[in-house]
């Protein structure tokens, strides 16, 4: 056991308050009483909802003084993994901002789309989204860049708009799940103390087969239909080059700080030399990118504080008790982690927040049931990305539908990749062998250590 706290279901009330404030209001303003020109799930700020929940958590447990509770919060915020996440979020925001400002994202997408044969635009869009999101580390950023191109493809070729958008969203979630600079990857690995390259090696065994099957399905659908030529797209090879450098460095497993710093250092001069930005706009792009991460950083701080109090008050132990009653095996524990993460994503409509909230509980579950940390990080990331890529009120589908001018519900039937990835995750959990053998590992020799075996220093 990782904790000696007594089970106390009342300690989970702050989470219930958050669900009512954020999810309840979101459903009401999105589907029951929608507000014109405004996304229902953004009426109530996630920061405000967590702030109110944190206040209630501070009120609980009268056996401790307010100063003691503040110290508990400080210990939660000061965790090495939380601090590392905050620093990486800053660099990731700077990278995303200058990449957009320097024209790198658009040039990379256009360059790849320009070489795709006519009639294969939809699988091409999926492939482009996969690669761009791998390099960018953000599904929302990828969707913002590629969906306008998908809209143009649909308009010029007559291909179904929801099909094109669904392919882009699926590909964006592929990279969000695997990228070394994705905030979900950062959150999942740092909270479990796992090296990013090890989590990548485990995730790729599920994500790549799911992506291949998705690509084949989209290819079959495309070959059965008819389309008109979509024309040419303009791009600048130099503006695209830094993305491929970043992608290469990510794939070979370089430190995420190095990857982000090199990407920023490359995009600034490339953008200035190609005329996309000047000195002032380059600095502004970096600043805007960092500013765009502020909410994520604040939420991380609030969640770290609230979960520290909930754990201290016995809330995590209550959840563990519930899982113990229903999970009598290692696979059952992994299923519990997946369900918990997916539920938190449904509640928060934010896969990073879902991981941050579920991670401490998942760590306790893994310690008790002997689930390898790399598997836990993989389950956290995959399950959150699956749900985030399918909920109609998530930022991904709302942004995509807003750009395309269609409802997110219309896109839902074409979200092929998240559905197939969910199937692979379920199979991996169900058929996880007693020595960790299964879909997650390619080694079958019982004398050979599993890829999931944690390295000892």
The ordered string of helix (H) and strand (E) elements is HHHHHHHHHHHHHHHHHHHHH
Q: What is the count of DSSP helices, taking H or I runs of 4+ residues?
A: 21
Give the amount of beta strand, in percent: under 5%
User: Assembly state here?
Assistant: single chain
Provide the helix percentage. over 70%
Radius of gyration: 22 Å
SS-derived structural category? mainly alpha
Cα distance, first to last residue?
23 Å
Judging from the principal axes of the Cα atoms, what is the shape? globular
The strand count comes to 0
Low-confidence stretches: 442-457
* Biggest sheet details: none
Mean pLDDT: 82
Describe the SSE topology:
Elements: H1 13-32, H2 46-59, H3 66-77, H4 80-101, H5 104-114, H6 121-136, H7 139-157, H8 161-178, H9 183-192, H10 196-224, H11 237-251, H12 256-273, H13 279-291, H14 294-312, H15 315-326, H16 330-348, H17 351-369, H18 373-388, H19 395-404, H20 408-411, H21 416-430
Helix pairs in contact: 1-2, 2-14, 3-14, 4-9, 4-12, 4-13, 4-14, 5-6, 5-7, 5-11, 6-7, 6-8, 6-10, 6-11, 7-8, 7-19, 8-10, 8-18, 9-17, 9-18, 10-18, 10-21, 11-12, 14-17, 15-17, 16-17, 16-18, 17-18, 18-21
Provide a descriptive summary of the structure in words.
The chain is an all-alpha fold and 457 residues long. It has a domain at 82-291. It is 72% helix and 0% strand. The chain has 21 helices and no strands. The protein has helices spanning 13-32, 46-59, 66-77, 80-101, 104-114, 121-136, 139-157, 161-178, 183-192, 196-224, 237-251, 256-273, 279-291, 294-312, 315-326, 330-348, 351-369, 373-388, 395-404, 408-411, 416-430. The protein starts with 12 loop residues before the first helix and ends in a 27-residue tail after the last helix. The model is unreliable at 442-457 (pLDDT under 50).
């Amino acid at each position: 056991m990782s904790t000696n706290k007594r089970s106390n279901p009342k300690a989970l009330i702050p989470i219930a308050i958050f669900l009512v404030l954020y999810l309840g209001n979101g459903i009401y303003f999105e589907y029951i009483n929608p507000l014109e020109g405004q996304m229902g799930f953004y009426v109530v700020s996630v920061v405000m909802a967590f702030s109110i929940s944190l206040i209630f958590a501070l009120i609980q447990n009268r056996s401790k003084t307010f100063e003691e509770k503040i110290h508990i919060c400080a210990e939660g915020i000061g965790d090495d993994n939380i601090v590392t996440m905050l620093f990486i979020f800053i660099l990731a925001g700077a990278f995303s901002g200058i990449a957009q400002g320097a024209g790198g994202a658009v040039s990379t997408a256009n360059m790849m789309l320009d070489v795709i044969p006519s009639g294969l635009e939809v699988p091409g869009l999926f492939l482009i989204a996969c690669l761009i999101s791998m390099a960018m580390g953000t599904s929302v950023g990828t969707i913002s860049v590629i969906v306008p191109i998908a809209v143009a493809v649909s308009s010029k070729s007559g291909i179904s708009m929801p099909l094109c958008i669904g392919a882009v969203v699926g590909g964006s979630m592929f990279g969000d799940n695997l990228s070394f600079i994705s905030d979900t990857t950062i959150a999942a690995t740092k909270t479990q103390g796992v090296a990013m390259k090890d989590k990548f090696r485990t995730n790729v065994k599920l994500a790549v087969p799911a992506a291949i099957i998705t690509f084949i399905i989209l290819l079959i659908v495309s070959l059965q239909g008819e389309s008109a030529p979509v024309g040419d797209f303009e791009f600048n090879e130099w503006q695209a080059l830094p993305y491929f450098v970043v992608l290469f460095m990510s794939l070979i497993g370089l430190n995420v700080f190095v990857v982000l710093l090199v990407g920023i250092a490359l995009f600034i001069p490339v953008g200035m030399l190609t005329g996309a930005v000047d000195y002032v706009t380059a600095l502004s792009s970096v600043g805007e990118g960092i500013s765009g991460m502020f909410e994520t950083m604040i939420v991380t701080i609030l969640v770290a504080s609230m979960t520290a109090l909930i754990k201290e008050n016995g809330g995590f132990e209550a959840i563990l008790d519930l899982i113990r009653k229903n999970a009598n095996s290692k696979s059952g524990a992994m299923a519990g982690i997946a369900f918990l993460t997916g539920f938190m994503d449904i509640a928060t409509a934010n896969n990073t927040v879902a991981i941050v909230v579920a991670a401490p509980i998942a760590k306790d579950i893994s310690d008790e049931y002997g689930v390898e940390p790399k598997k836990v990080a993989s389950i956290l990331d995959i399950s959150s990305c699956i749900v985030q890529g399918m909920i109609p009120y998530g930022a991904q589908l709302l942004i995509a539908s807003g750009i395309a001018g269609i409802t997110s519900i219309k896109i839902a039937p074409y979200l092929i990749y998240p559905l197939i990835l969910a199937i692979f995750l379920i199979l991996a959990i169900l058929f996880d062998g007693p020595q960790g053998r299964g879909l997650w590992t390619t080694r079958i020799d019982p004398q050979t250590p599993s890829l999931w075996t944690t390295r000892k220093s």
